[in-house]
Structure formats: C-alpha cells, structure tokens
Amino acid sequence: MGWASLPARPGETPNLRGLGRGTMAHQVTFEPEGWVVSVPEGATVLDAAVAAGIAMETDCGGQGVCGRCVALVREGTVRPLDEARWQETAVGAARRVLSCQAVVVSDLVVEVPEDGRAAQQIAVLGSAEGVGEGGLRGATRLAMRVELELPPPTRDDSLNDLDRIRRGLRERGLEPVHADLRLLQCLPGVLRASGFRVSVALADTEAGWQLIDVLPLGAPGRAHGLAVDIGTTTVALQLVDLETGAVVAHGGERNAQVRFGDDVISRIVWSEQHGDGVSRLQAAVRETLGELIVQACHEAHVSPRDVIAASIAGNATMMSFLLGVETGPLRRDPHSPVAGDLPVFRACDLGLPIHPRAAVFGQAAVSGFVGADITAGVLATGMADSPELTLLVDVGTNGEIALGNNEWLVCCSCSAGPAFEGVGIEAGMHGGSGAIDRLAYDPQTDEFTYHVIGDAPPRGLCGTGFIDALATLFAARVIDRAGAYDPGFPSPRLRTRTYEPEFLLVLAGEREAPDDIALAQSDLDNLIRSKAAVHAGVSILLRRVGLQPPAIERILLAGAFGSNLPVEQAVAIGLLPDLPRERIHYVGNTSLQGALRALLSGEARRRASEIARRMTYIELSTDTAFMEEYMASMFLPHTDMARFPSVT
Amino acid sequence: MGWASLPARPGETPNLRGLGRGTMAHQVTFEPEGWVVSVPEGATVLDAAVAAGIAMETDCGGQGVCGRCVALVREGTVRPLDEARWQETAVGAARRVLSCQAVVVSDLVVEVPEDGRAAQQIAVLGSAEGVGEGGLRGATRLAMRVELELPPPTRDDSLNDLDRIRRGLRERGLEPVHADLRLLQCLPGVLRASGFRVSVALADTEAGWQLIDVLPLGAPGRAHGLAVDIGTTTVALQLVDLETGAVVAHGGERNAQVRFGDDVISRIVWSEQHGDGVSRLQAAVRETLGELIVQACHEAHVSPRDVIAASIAGNATMMSFLLGVETGPLRRDPHSPVAGDLPVFRACDLGLPIHPRAAVFGQAAVSGFVGADITAGVLATGMADSPELTLLVDVGTNGEIALGNNEWLVCCSCSAGPAFEGVGIEAGMHGGSGAIDRLAYDPQTDEFTYHVIGDAPPRGLCGTGFIDALATLFAARVIDRAGAYDPGFPSPRLRTRTYEPEFLLVLAGEREAPDDIALAQSDLDNLIRSKAAVHAGVSILLRRVGLQPPAIERILLAGAFGSNLPVEQAVAIGLLPDLPRERIHYVGNTSLQGALRALLSGEARRRASEIARRMTYIELSTDTAFMEEYMASMFLPHTDMARFPSVT
After folding, report:
1. CATH number given to A26-54+56-117
2. How far is B192 from chain A (nearest CA, A)?
3. Which of B153, B163, B325 lies closest to A184 in CB terms?
4. Closest residue of chain A to B155, computed from CA coordinates
5. Mind telling me how many Å the CA of A250 is from chain B's nearest CA?
6. In CATH terms, is domain A143-216 a member of 3.30.450.40?
7. Contacts of A395 (CB under 8 A, 6+ apart)
8. Is B280's pLDDT higher than 90?
9. Is the ipTM reported for this complex over the cut 0.85?
10. What percent of chain A has pLDDT over 70?
C-alpha cells in the first residue's frame, strides 16, 4: 500500500510546507508575471509554480497523464521526471513541457500560457504596473530602497539634512516625504559618515512616503518584504526580495491562538472572558509570526533588519487580535470592525522581529466577518476586473464567499470550522511532509491505496486528503449518504473502537509507529458539517442575489488545504455546486497571493481598498433559511440529489 | 538702602517667575487679541499684560510716572496701587488707567490701545483667524477637542469605527484623519461604552488630522496645551486652556543642561566627547521640562492627560538635544541643522509627562545657529508683516539677530554667553523673587539704592539688574570706559578681595545672610563681553546689508532678562545702537510668545514655517571684521564715541 513510486503531485511544495528543506538550489522566473521563486534540488516546474502562487491546471494530479499543466521553458534546463511520460514540443526557441514532469536543474525562465493555468487568478496583474519585467519590476513596493548621492552641504547650499534628502527624493518623483523621531536622530551621523551617499528606505503610506531608514550607500543586504496570511488555524508567510519580486523563502505554521479556541467566535468569547484576553491572543499570533519570520530569514540568509515591509491579510478577527484591538463588536450585530483601510503601521508597534520602522500594510476589511483575506483573494483572482460571473469560495476555518464580476460584488461568511485544516480531527495535520493527501479505491480488488506528501512515512491527513478520503469512502460505499459507516462493508479496516466505528487508513505496523491512522465516525461528521456550512453559504448567497448555480461562469476554490485540491472530489462530497468541471478551479491560498501582490504593487494596494469598499456584505446568520440549507447539505453530496446530477 | 516702599515695577510677574504663588485669583482678558491670563491677588494690570506676553510701553519702569502704559478697563474693577499717582479718564463706558497702577480686584476685560504698547509685536495676530473673540477663538489649535454624537452602527449603516469617526469629522470640515495603533486599540471599547457620543482630541499635523484620543462625551477635564521656550540657560513655559486661549499657569527654570556647559558650543563639544552625550543632554532638558510641566499642571489643577499639545521654540542646538539628535554638524561649517520644519511628534516619543499622544510642534529652524527661537520671535513681533525696517535682537546665551521687514529678512547669530541670564556671574540669578533688577545712584548724596523683585530680601542680580548696574556704575564713574573699577572712587563699597576689585551691592548684614552680594571685576568683564558680542553682531549684520543704524525704524530687544528692561540703560552700555529712544522697545520673551501663537493658531504655524524659509542666514564667524567690531565694542558704550552721541 502506498504510491511511493508515483511521481510528485502538484502541491508537494505548497506554501504551507514546513521550512528547513535546506538551501534553495535554483531560481525560476515565471512570465508574464515576472514572479521569481527559489526551489530546492529535485523540484518540478509545477512545484515552483505552486510556490510562486500560480495555480496550474491539473486534472490527473500531476501524474503526467492529463497533459494540461503545460509550460514553456524559455531559458535554462529541465530534465524528465519519468521518461515514460515525457512530452516535449519546440515552440520557437522554447520547449513546451508538462510542468509536473519537468525537474528543475538550472535557473529557469518559464512562461505559463493561458491554457496551462487553473484560473485567471492573476488577471489583476494585467492592470498593475511593470508586469513582465520580473516581479512587477517598476511597480511601487510597499517599501523600497532608493540610492541617493547628495551634494554635501556648503555655505551656498546649507539646506538642512531632512530637506536635502527630500530634495533628492523629489527629483525621483517621491514626495511628500515624512520622517519620525528615531530617523531624525540618526540622520546627521549617517549622512556625514557616508559623505551624503546613502541608501534610503521608504514606505508608501496613506500620507505619503515615510522614511524607514537611511544607510550608507553600499551597505550589505538587499531590501526584503513579507507577505503574510493569518488564518484562524494556519499562518502562512513568504519572504520576498523587494527588488526582483522573488519569493526567497516561504513557510507555514499552526496559529498559536488555536489553544484559545478553534474558531474566531470561541477566541473572541475567550478574550472577553479574560481581562488580558486580547493581549494574550495578540502575543500568541506574534509568537507564530515571529517564529516564521526568523526561520524564513535564516533559510534565505536575510538579516531581519533588511526586511522593511510586511503585507498582511487575514479575517477581521485575526487582524484585530494582531493589532491588539478588542474583538467583542465583531461578533455582535452589525459586526463593525474597527477600521476598513488600516493605516500603515511600523513593525515595532506590532512587535514583529524585522526592521523596527518597517512598513506594515493590512488589507482592508469589508465587515466584521468578511475581512482582509477575502479582499486579498478577490484582488489576487482578478474577479473584480472580469466580466465573468465568478464565485470565490475561500474554505478556511472561517469560510468566506464572494460572488460577482467587474460590475458588482457581494460577499458573506460562514463558520466552516477547522476540519479542513486538520484541527478537531484525530488524524488531522497540516499539509507538510508525511501528510496523506489522496485515498484511492480499486473496485476490482477492493483495495485502498493512499499517497503521502514528500519522502516520509504517513503521519496523518491534510485537508486535501480529508476531502479525497470522504469522496472515496462514499464512492466505495463504505459510508452512506448521511456519512455513516456501513457496518456491513466487507473490510477488516472498518472496525469499532470504544464508542464509534472507524476506518483504518494505516496500521501502526505499516508505518513503524505506535498508532494507527484512522478516520472515526465523529471525524467524518466534522468534515460533513464543514462542507455543509460552506455549501449552505453558497446557496444562500446565490438565493439572496436571485441567481441559480448554473449562472456561475467560474468557481474558484481557495484555501490552505495543504495540496492542490482535486475539483472532482470537492463536487462529489457536495462542497461545491455541481457545475461543469471546467468552470471549477482550485486556486490555492488567494489570501496570501493577494498579500504578496499588495506588497509589490501600489496599484494592487489601491485596488484592494477599492474592492473592500465595493463589496456588499450579506449577513447570513440572521437568515432563517440558512439553517434549513445547512441541514439539507448534511448529506453526501446533498439531500436534494437533483442538485448533483453528475454525482451518482 | 532698598526701595521697599516704591510701587511694583513691570516685570514682577514675568514669565520666568517661579511657580507656586498660590491660587490664581482673577482672569484678565486682553483685547483686541483675546488673550486671557489668570493672575494672583494684588497683581496689577501691567503684571497681567506681562504674563500674557504683551509688552507695554513703560519709560518709568512702572512707577506711575511716565504715563505711557495706558489701558482701557472695559469690564470689571481695579483699584489704585498708590492714590497719589492715580490717573483715570472715562472713555465711553471704559476707564482709561495706567496699567502699572491698576490693581486687579475682579475678573477684567482690558483693551490695550496702540499707544500703550511697547511695539507692534502682535501685528501677526491681525492676520490670524478669529481675533477678538477671546484667545484666537476659532483659530486652528495645534490640538483640539471635537464633540461628536455619532449614530451607533446598524445593519444598514455598519460602517467601521474609524470611518464612522471620520465621517463625523468630515461633516465639521476636518479631513483627512489618521489614527495610530494605540488609538485603534481603545476605539471599539470607548465608542460602545459611550453610546458613540465622544469627545475626540485631534492634532493638526503636516499630513492632516491625527487622532490623539477618544473619550466619552462629558468626561471631566478641558483640553490644555503648552507653549515652551527652551533657552540655553533658561526654560520658560506657559500652560494654556486651548478653548479660551487663557494662560492658566506659567513658570521658568534653569535648564538642567547648564551643568554640561554654559553655552551651546561647550555642550555640543561635551556631547561629542561622551558616548552617551546626546542622551544625557536630552535627559537633562527633559528633566527641566518635566518639572515645569508637573508644577504648572499642579498649580492650575490640570491633569497632565488633558494636556494634548505642546508648541516648542528654542535654538537649533536646544531643539536637537530635546529630540536626541546629534549636534556635531551644528558647530561645523556650514552649520546645517537636521531639519527645517519638524514633523509633529507625539509627546511619548519625547518623554514629556503629558498625554502620550499629545501633538508636539517644534518651530522651524533657519540654520544651525539661527533656530526656532528667532523664527518664533519674528512671528510674535509681526516684523515680517510690517513695512517698517525692524531690528530684532534676542539676547539669550545664544544671541540671535534678525533684520528686515515685509519684503526681506536676514538673520545672524552670535554667542553672547549666559551673563545676562545670571550664569557665570557670582551674584547672578534668574529673574525671580529676591532678584535685584535696578541700581540707582544719587550724585548729591553719593548713595546707591537698589530694587528687589517681590517681597523678599535680595538674593542676587537678574539680567535687567546687571544691565542697570553696569550703566549706573559707569554713569557714576565707579568704572571707566573699559569697564575697569576706578580704584580712586571714593566709596567704602569698592574694595579688593583676593585678586580683584569688587563693588558691594548688599552687605551680608544688610540682608541677614552670611554672604555679601558683590559685582567683581571679572563679572563686569563677562557682561561687557556679552554686550560687545551682541553689538558687534548687529553692526556686522547692518554692514553686510549695506545699512547704517539710523535706517532702522524699530529696534525690538527681546530676551529673558527677568524683568522689563530699561531701554535707556541698554543703549548706555552700548548693547544697542544709539537711536532715538522711541524707536527702541523691550518686547520680552518673543520666543515664548511665538510658541504660544503657534500653539493657538494654524495660521501662525504656517507663517512660522514661511518666515524660516524667507530668512537669509548670514554667517558672522567667518567674517574677519567681526572680531574687529567685537574688540571695538569692548568699551562703554563703544570705542567710537561718535556712534553714541546721546551717551555722555
């Protein structure tokens, strides 16, 4: 049992994989976006695309079968992963290959044509500055360094230090420029020690350019920034070279706030019941962020002082706890958050272990339950710029749903619970090495096989694995439409332990570990409640705008499932409406992607703010039909089978 | 000996008098400015005018003789100080009286007509907003409170908290509005606890309105602000009710930095020779400021949390040390300061014991040696708006001189030393109670008499006393033109102690103290060096712009001498050019007056910045003629007696 010989599947280098994989060996530049990522030895072009936040089209799961994840290798060398599956065509000077089969063996320049992409998730880039030159080169970073060779003061030009710097920056079109006290304190010394030849770090804020630092020209270190998605359950982070736009390290970790409650409501309640509640929740997320930052900087050999910007997305509750803002009002009607557009903060105010004056940009929130993460997601997917009617379903612990196009946008929120992120499920784990992400059933042999991420023994299931397992167990009739194990199913792996039945995926002996890996009945119930909440949310949102599912031209499924999610299974369990599969795309962690875009482009930051203002929030919790829809969605795929004609 | 029976002289309630005089008894409102000050029982209208920063015309020194310090009492009651000197005329419903003779016995509304004023020092107010309604009422304070009764959020109006406040403020014409992290942290709680009825404190900054605080409507306490002049030797402060513009407390104290050096150069050198030099000098001035603030708040029963603004003037070195900015570049050619216009800081950044987010405005500097104090002085005197060619001489330890009118302005700086502030002179003291401020000589009887500020035994001499004593000793021929004691002068008070001759002003027995109060030869030499530096500065500045002294239409002598300075004596010792006396006016601490105006009026803040940009700095230290002029000025009144025809 096990697919050790099978090729890697997309998602093996997801954003959430733990760090510490050793040195990154090669840089892959993706065009036309110009994103650059570093990947380790042995990674495929598909791995690199996932790391870059580009969702590729893959039906076969990266097995070199479906032939959809095509990429054009323009510069550099790749080698076949499996000669038997290798397909290659020359397109001018480029090689057209399957990205899942192309192992990176040198630095590459790769173009991903439209037909290789899972969705037009990066359409927004088309309207951003400088696309195609590499990492949005020329776009207005959240923070940047500018080199200035200023004339030293003389009697005829005795202009003061700050205005001298301003004069130099004005010549580059950068004004107004502000300075805080700490900066003024170091200014005379640095200017004179450097002979007025300096590298000036600046933040793009709502009030103009804020001086972050002034260093002697030629001081070592390059300017870096962070893109961060603070999920209720998982915090994901990318460390980015601000000049090239290259993602030089990435990581993910469980949000240390989980110990105060699995979902936002339980954490808000906890914080209200404890005098220092907000502070403790703030400290917890700072701890997680701090660890991720230190690890990423260590891995990429970047000094934390060179990290001068951070762009952060997360739901309104996560953003509030990060800021240390009371969250009580978020859970009470009408769920007003403390602010829509946030001011650009300094890292020292938030306790982040980077440059103390680094610019911290928080995405704008729509309401207390539809936060910066969905704004970032709508930004990253470009749906606000497309005429196509698009449904974005971001399945996190807090499920957020947006519907609309370039003319209108509505959104809502539903509490999906953390099951898809592996919390509240005994065998759950995040999508790192050792996570089971697929379960297959062969009706001929009645055999079950599973696939594990990375070269490691199985340790548990990630979100993708849960959805795959639920779909597979249902297809194999191990469970019935209510999700209950069929005690009559003829398999020794189905057994009853303590009070409930469970299905054994891996026996302790099979993985050389003391415990079995099993899915208990209560685990399945949790998963079904989660998918039901999301589906009910989608249904009510559609009903509230007077549309039927077939009106949706595109469904973009986003979330940190730990591995690229198979669309078929998401429909099979009733998580998503039963639409033609070519309309449905898994687009990965769009919240993180949006944060990255905001980090790198001023146009993206402005658009994020516009998107938040444009979106109309629709409150579901007061809709009596929601509970009805939720109950009807508690079946596989749904009580009303007419809604899922393709699922048999 | 002593003038105990003589009436009080102007300056008995100067800005520099020590605090702790007990409760203020009455409020005096001055028109047309609308300034309001509180004064203790027994104060005269002239005392109140000095406290309000209004310099009155007084030739007799407030003895009720010259008849120039006229004021119209429009509302309230005054009583004669000395019936024998009382003059009163009815002007409509008002009483025209001599301010020096009118003791305040109730709250008053007083108009000071032009002929009662020492100078058109407040001309600038004519162009500021809202003059005449009381304390620049209606003018844009550096910080202010605005009461907002906001609609609580509903489902139809679920706008976030910050934008809800912004919407309320926009309706008052206040935008853009910014918030820092600390403010956001308290926002949801305060808004909900108060039912969205709040008092919002706002600071007027270069980037718009910054939220300082949000309090429930009706919370006790009124908004106050500070006007501060940080002198090299003396720090002066006024605590002001921001709503009415009333000065509710004032105080002055020796700058604790004096222990690191008497003048700016010696302190800069000290700071450069010690690793933590800047920090220690910063700590010293913070200590002085902190004590003054605590005392002023205590005296006026104002909570430091209600002090939401501070407007600070001082020379470039003093401002740099306050900010903790390295000062080395200030003493080296071309003396560039760190910044011209300073950003509005938060009090917590500067360690001031007021509201942590209080707005701190620093006047703009012209150069490293012509700082915010002269900008404030030019602002306060209105000379930049007048067609009259005006010379402003600000005699502090760092002497600063400005010349010009509404068409052009030049300025320079000379190190006068701290002698006029009573430092470096054995008998020196600041201008508080017990300071001798006048010395008189009766050639008939060969008797010397002195006058002491306040109802106290003599303790030393203040700046005014030094100038008076020097002029009197010279007139009595106790000293010769070189300032040397004439050993042949027939007085037992002239004696030689240790190495040098000295003149005994007060014997130990006369004042019931163990020591005599004497002026030693070296003290006189110090004073003469100080006056010579100022006179040389004036001469060179005039020469550099190609003018002769008679071209000057007005001389405004500013400085913290501790008492109103007699103009005649300032000319007699050669401190000022020998011009018709009606052109010369003592205008008090114009730096503090300018800081006060900037605190209360946005127009004044903008004008201060314009003035700093308009002024051309003229460097004297590299002018070889300066030393020549300085040496020639070391005589009384000058080597070239033709320059002082009126001094015999």
Report:
1. 3.10.20.30
2. 8
3. B325
4. A334
5. 28
6. no
7. A416, A420, A463, A530, A534, A557, A558, A559, A561, A575
8. yes
9. no
10. 89
